[in-house]
């Protein structure tokens, strides 16, 4: 799963949602005292390509959940009550920022005087200024959304960061947070940040700090002794990398790990249906995830609108979703390229008209100059209508999805090959560079903000700027929709913003810039030995409050 650092984007579900109660402590639902001490092992499905969170290599949502959320300060956290995600000032702030409105709004962040880095140095306004400068002016940046609207950061008062925006920006609360957080100027300024942070880092201003990260094996967190909030109950948390879903269940059943957060693979759903002795589970279908067939609009054959539309009419997306998630009650395809979490800011039925229609496929392809060869595959100018679908290696559900699409597309006259890569390579290198035709993966919000402009505005096309930054990996360029895409990001009036979002999503659908496939529910599994407020947060992930968890002997 890739995170959308919008810093708002790795399912819009249709089945019932089962959430753990935010205050529940025991596996049987009773209140229990959370013990102090002990270690917890989590079966982690992916590891990041790097831990330089603002670089293009940092697109793994698992890296964000494991090591970013738990170690870095941010201006706002995101709370979740099972229905609504809301911004709340983080422990790093003394309270809500002061906002002066106008053509150039000014935001004043007052820093909590107790907030310090793990070396005891106070968090200051210079940390805000350094973070802004690195993102706005650095090279190889994952995404600059929002930071390109900051005119200046005044750090004259160490206790107050005064941020002046160049124009109104509706999503300002995601700044100095989202997928990035705030970085320590006193430790990084004047150094090569990318090199310093690539393989893990020793500093922290969260409840945990990274003790070690052994690639392919595990990442280990230990308590940050200078953390000014509630101290972690556990002595150590180990994220053991287990990328094979079947092996994850073996590890859980054998007690080698007590927590899992697997993607909803078929065997996961089968296990949930049959019951998992000694484990509790929570299925959350209102998430910040959207899984789609992401199309490279700048690469053949998807540089043709007719081909993109024809592919959309070649697929029975509802049948695919029912095959994958029917066991947990999710049977209808997503009809928007935005997750359910931000449903009020887009058209959730924009893609509903794209259903299986082979006559429409023929009409579109012949109208674009294609003819069917003797093998039943469309041809034009000596080239076949052939493309590859890339996804994450070792993901059985995605492999099945690819196989189903391969069969359906072949029946419609398209030749499809399957080419899967390690998650780090896919999200850190291949997709940002545009070295793909179609990709199957999920985008994950890191703030309760729509990712429309982040993913589809021309300014975020890595090929269109000198820094080669941005998350418009699809290389989308819709001049007539640019104003609406931008308004979703900037408009302060909620009604204006929602109207722009609806128009923008309709334009994205009309041009089939990509194709939403399935809502991707979150599934959290934990042993009844784990106590504390275990809960999935669809924005910050399930480990945002792991410092409050404990393990019973």
Protein architecture, described:
There is one protein chain. The protein is an alpha+beta fold and 553 residues long. Helix content is 24%, strand content 21%. The protein is built from 14 helices and 24 strands. The strands form six sheets. Strands 9-10-11-2-12-22-13 form a seven-stranded mixed β-sheet, with helices on both faces. A hairpin with a 4-residue loop joins strand 3 and strand 4. Helix 7 runs antiparallel to helix 9 and helix 13 runs antiparallel to helix 14. The longest helix has 17 residues. The chain is globular and about 70 Å long. The two termini are 34 Å apart. About 5% of the residues have low confidence.
Descriptive tags:
553 residues; alpha+beta; 7-stranded mixed β-sheet; 6-stranded mixed β-sheet; 14 helices; 24% helix
């Amino acid at each position: 799963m890739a995170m959308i650092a919008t810093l708002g984007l790795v399912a819009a579900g249709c089945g019932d949602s089962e959430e753990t109660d935010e205050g529940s402590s025991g596996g049987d639902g009773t209140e229990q005292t959370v013990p102090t001490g002990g270690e917890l092992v989590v079966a982690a499905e992916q590891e990041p390509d790097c831990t330089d969170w603002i670089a293009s290599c940092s697109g793994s949502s698992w890296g964000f959940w494991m090591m970013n959320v738990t170690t870095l300060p941010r201006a706002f956290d995101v709370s979740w009550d099972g229905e609504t995600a809301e911004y709340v000032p983080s422990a790093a702030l003394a309270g809500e920022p002061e906002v002066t409105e106008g053509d150039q709004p000014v935001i004043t962040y007052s820093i909590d005087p107790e907030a310090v880095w793990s070396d005891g140095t106070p968090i200051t306004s210079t940390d805000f200024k350094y973070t802004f400068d690195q993102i706005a002016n650095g090279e190889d940046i994952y995404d600059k959304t929002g930071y390109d609207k900051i005119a200046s950061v005044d750090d004259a008062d160490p206790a107050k960061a005064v941020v002046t925006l160049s124009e109104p920006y509706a999503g300002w609360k995601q700044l100095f947070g989202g997928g990035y957080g705030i970085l320590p100027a006193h430790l990084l300024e004047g150094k090569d940040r990318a090199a310093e942070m690539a393989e893990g880092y020793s500093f922290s201003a969260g409840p945990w700090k990274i003790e070690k990260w052994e690639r392919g094996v595990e990442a280990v967190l230990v308590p940050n002794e200078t953390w000014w909030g509630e101290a972690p109950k556990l002595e150590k948390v180990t994220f053991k990398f287990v990328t094979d879903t079947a092996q994850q269940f073996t590890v859980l059943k054998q007690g080698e790990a007590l927590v899992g957060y697997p993607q909803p693979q078929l065997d996961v759903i089968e296990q949930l249906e049959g019951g998992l002795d000694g484990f509790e589970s929570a299925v959350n279908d209102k998430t910040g995830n959207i899984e789609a067939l992401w199309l490279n609009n700048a690469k053949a054959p998807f540089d043709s609108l007719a081909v993109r539309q024809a592919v959309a009419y070649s697929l029975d997306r509802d049948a695919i979703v029912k095959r994958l998630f029917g066991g947990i009650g999710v049977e209808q395809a997503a009809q928007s390229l935005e997750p359910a979490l931000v449903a009020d800011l887009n058209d959730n039925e924009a893609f509903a008209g794209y259903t299986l229609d082979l006559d429409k496929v023929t009409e579109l392809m012949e109208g674009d100059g294609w003819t069917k060869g003797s093998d039943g595959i469309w041809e034009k100018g000596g080239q076949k209508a052939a493309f590859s679908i890339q996804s994450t290696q070792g993901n059985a559900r995605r492999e099945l999805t690819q196989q189903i699409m391969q069969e359906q597309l072949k029946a419609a006259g398209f030749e499809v090959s399957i080419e899967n890569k390690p998650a780090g390579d896919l999200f850190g290198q291949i997709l940002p560079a545009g070295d793909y035709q179609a990709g199957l993966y999920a985008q994950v919000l890191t703030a309760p903000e729509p990712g429309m402009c982040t993913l589809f505005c021309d300014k975020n096309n890595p090929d269109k700027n000198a820094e080669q930054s941005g998350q418009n990996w699809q290389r989308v360029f819709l001049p007539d929709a640019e104003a609406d895409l931008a308004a979703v990001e900037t408009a302060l009036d909620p009604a204006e913003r929602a109207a722009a979002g609806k128009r923008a999503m309709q334009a994205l659908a009309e041009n089939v810039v990509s194709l939403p496939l399935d809502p991707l529910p979150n599934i959290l599994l934990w042993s009844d030995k784990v106590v504390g407020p275990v809960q999935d947060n669809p924005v910050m992930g399930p480990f945002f409050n792991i410092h409050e968890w404990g393990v019973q002997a």
